[in-house]
Every structure is written in C-alpha cells, then in structure tokens.
C-alpha cells in the first residue's frame, strides 16, 4: 500500500524570502558592537599600563633622589638640594674635589634630566616641605621651614600637555 504524503514545506513559501539575510545582518551588527566594546577595553588597558609605567618610573626617580640625599647628609643639612641650580658640576665626576654643594647640584641636574627624559613633561623639585603632596610645576608650594625633604615629581599622565600628576617621596633627618 502506498501512502501519498503531501506535506508542504512552510519555509519554501514566498512569504519568508530574505528573512535569513536580515538575521545575518543583525548578528553581524551585534558582533561589531561587541568587537567595538573589546577595542575600548583594550584601549583602557593600554592607558592603565602606560600610567603604571610612568608611576613606576617616578617612584624609582624619587627613591634615587632620597638615596642621594641620604648619601650627602652635609648637603641636606646645608639645604644645598633646595637651593641648587640644575647644572652639573664637572668636579663631581672625578674622584676628589667635589664639595657637598657641588654634589647636590650634580644630583639635582641628573635627577631633573632623568625625570624630563623618562616622563612626559616631567618636572622634579627637591625642597624642604611639611606638606609634600601639594603644589604644581609652576608653584611648588615648598615652605622651606621643615626638617623633612620632599621630592616632588610632576608629569603629564593624560596627554593633555599639562604636567599635573604628582608623586612625592620624603626623607627626614633627626
């Protein structure tokens, strides 16, 4: 016995033409939105990595400055780090003949150059200050009356051309 099946394929009717194409376009749109979100996350991750790199550089520079100040206690007591000009003294590159003031001057020159080279718009200031976490590159706000030396470093962390991010380190001698 033969049974005749006459089932109609509902997808083959003319009412659904192009529906698969619309589904593909919608899925591509959603995929592109997701990929744009991933690109945004990647960009934020790169910015955070760059900021962490600059903070690490600033911390290393400030640690180097504090160690140099500790090594030149006479220069610290005489406030040579606060009043030094940012010029290297050739006598400090030799074995003998370098005074504590000349050493402070050379240290400040080397540290300032390092901040300018490693940090965008990097500015370094060494001064006596009770409140080391204030000030700007234009106005350091060093009170000068403290027994504590503050190492202040500013740089442009968000690439707007203005050095405003501050990392400080301090050392106090009794």
Structural features:
single chain; alpha+beta; 4 helices; 174 residues; 13% strand; 3-stranded antiparallel beta sheet
Structure description:
The chain has 174 residues and is an alpha+beta fold. The protein has one domain. It is elongated and about 115 Å long. α1 (19-71) runs antiparallel to α4. A three-stranded antiparallel beta sheet has the order 1-2-3. Helix content is 47%, strand content 13%.
Straight-line distance between termini: 112 Å
Mean pLDDT across all amino acids: 81
Spans of at least 5 consecutive residues whose pLDDT stays below 50 are none
Judged by helices, strands and strand pairing, the structural class is alpha+beta
Number of strands: 3
The percent of residues in helical segments reads 40-55%
Evaluate the radius of gyration. Answer: 32 Å
- Major sheet characteristics: 3 strands, antiparallel
Number of separate domains: 1
Annotation field: number of helices: 4
Shape: elongated
Helix-strand topology string? HHHHEEE
User: What share of the residues does DSSP label as strand, in percent?
Assistant: 5-15%
Strand order of the largest sheet: 1-2-3
Short structural summary:
Residues 41-108 form the Type IV pilin Tt1218-like domain. The protein is of the alpha+beta class. Helix content is 47%, strand content 13%.
């Amino acid at each position: 016995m033969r049974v005749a099946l006459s089932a109609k394929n509902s997808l083959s009717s003319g009412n659904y033409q192009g529906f698969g194409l619309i589904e593909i376009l919608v899925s591509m749109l959603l995929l592109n939105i997701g990929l744009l979100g991933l690109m945004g996350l990647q960009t934020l991750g790169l910015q955070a990595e760059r900021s962490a790199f600059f903070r690490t550089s600033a911390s290393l520079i400030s640690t180097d400055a504090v160690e140099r100040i500790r090594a030149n206690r006479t220069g610290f007591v005489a406030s040579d780090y606060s009043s030094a000009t940012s010029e290297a003294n050739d006598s400090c590159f030799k074995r003998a003949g370098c005074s504590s003031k000349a050493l402070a001057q050379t240290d400040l020159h080397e540290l300032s150059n390092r901040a300018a080279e490693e940090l965008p718009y990097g500015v370094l200031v060494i001064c006596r200050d009770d409140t080391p976490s204030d000030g700007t590159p234009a106005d350091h706000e060093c009170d000068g009356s403290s027994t504590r030396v503050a190492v202040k470093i500013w740089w442009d962390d968000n690439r707007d051309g203005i050095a405003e991010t501050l990392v400080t380190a301090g050392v106090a001698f009794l």
